[in-house]
Specification:
about 350 residues, mainly alpha
Length: about 350
């Protein structure tokens, strides 16, 4: 979901390495949303299977924090140049276009009433594009205020904690803007770091063990909930939803951030360095991200209204549906689909030309 045009020249030799990491992450995003759809709409006998809940939680521990770190890394050139025009062209404008059609799509499939949505309340999963655009626009100005770059990182964590514990909820997408910014700025600050130690055999083994350890943790720790990992709520909402005290939420928040930063390294530790057939998924992850949202929204709405996913009450079919996210991802980035949807995913827009026309 990052833009390769922003890759610093010093990182070009590592494109495939990071594309492979994005390939893994975008499949996790797709699977995570299918997990959510199944949990919300399928009448499993005896309730939602434990393995499905645990897979859902497992994915949410790392997928968006690591995606945001990688996004910050590849936005370094744009942020350093204060290229807000490109950020608007490549992120804000696509968000507005996709959000408009997502609101219409909500109405068509019966997912939600258009009156319940707005351009300031991102549709299903679209918060990422809007938030990333905001980060790229505001970061150059914040860097001027904080003369030490790492001081900005510390300040972002501090502000996140302060605002998180306000007793009044914030409208969407403000909580996510606050919650994920430390990950983005960490990626930006470490953009020139090679992280070559992640390629060493001993670290790759450690990374595999870390994923096994995380899977065991989500299986045995009932405290881990997706509601705590999504980053879209404030303290008072967590308190009302889960009954957590402030000290409990603070500890969980610290662990969540540590896990996000560590699993960035662990994902790089399991990612192949060379190009392979799966690399193309990471290269074109933006198409998969945007287009799969329409699939998930349609499945969720039609499953609620017409029970089209009731067959997944047989857990074997639920597993098959999750596995199908991989071939579907390849279909979404096939040349015909990309050509047909380019107007939506990557609309042709030039703010610079518009400004020049107005100034004439």
């Amino acid at each position: 979901m990052t833009n390769n045009n922003a890759v610093p020249s010093s990182q070009k030799q590592r494109d495939f390495w990071f594309d492979n990491a994005k390939s893994f992450l975008i499949i996790c995003v797709f699977m995570g949303h299918i997990c959510e759809c199944l949990i919300k709409t399928v009448p499993f006998e005896g309730g939602t299977p434990i393995w499905l809940n645990n897979l859902f939680k497992f994915i949410y521990v790392f997928h968006m924090p690591v995606f945001m770190i990688i996004s910050g890394r590849f936005a370094k050139g744009r942020v350093t140049r204060n290229d807000w025009v490109t950020s608007i062209n490549k992120l804000v404008v696509p968000y507005v276009v996709v959000q408009f059609f997502m609101m219409l799509f909500y109405c068509i499939v019966g997912y939600s009433k258009v009156s319940y949505t707005s351009f300031f309340s991102p549709g299903y999963g679209l918060w990422y594009i809007l938030v990333l655009g905001i980060y790229q626009i505001i970061t150059p100005h914040l860097l001027k205020i904080f003369h030490n770059k790492w001081l900005l990182f510390i300040a972002s964590l501090s502000i996140m904690v302060i605002l998180l514990f306000q007793r009044y909820p914030f409208p969407a997408p403000i909580p996510r803007i606050i919650n994920f910014y430390p990950f983005f700025i960490f990626g930006y600050l470490t953009a020139d770091y090679s992280f070559d130690f992640c390629k060493k055999a001993i670290f790759r083994i450690l990374s595999i063990l870390a994923f096994f350890g995380l899977f065991i943790a989500v299986n045995y720790d009932s405290v881990i909930e997706v509601a705590l990992l999504s980053g879209k709520r404030t303290y008072i909402q967590y308190y009302n939803l889960l009954g957590l005290s402030k000290p409990e939420l603070l500890v969980i928040t610290v662990v969540r951030y540590l896990a996000g930063f560590l699993f960035f390294l662990f994902i790089m530790g399991i990612s192949p360095v060379k190009k392979h057939p799966g690399t193309i998924l990471g290269t074109n992850s933006t198409y998969i991200y945007i287009l799969h949202l329409f699939i998930v929204v349609a499945l969720t709405a039609l499953s609620k209204s017409h029970h089209i996913l009731d067959f997944c009450a047989n857990e074997t079919f639920a597993v098959i549906l999750l596995i199908l996210t991989i071939p579907i991802s390849y279909i979404l980035i096939s040349p015909p689909v990309m050509k047909l949807t380019r107007w939506l995913v990557s609309p042709s827009f030039s703010l610079k030309k518009i400004i020049e026309t107005i100034m004439k």
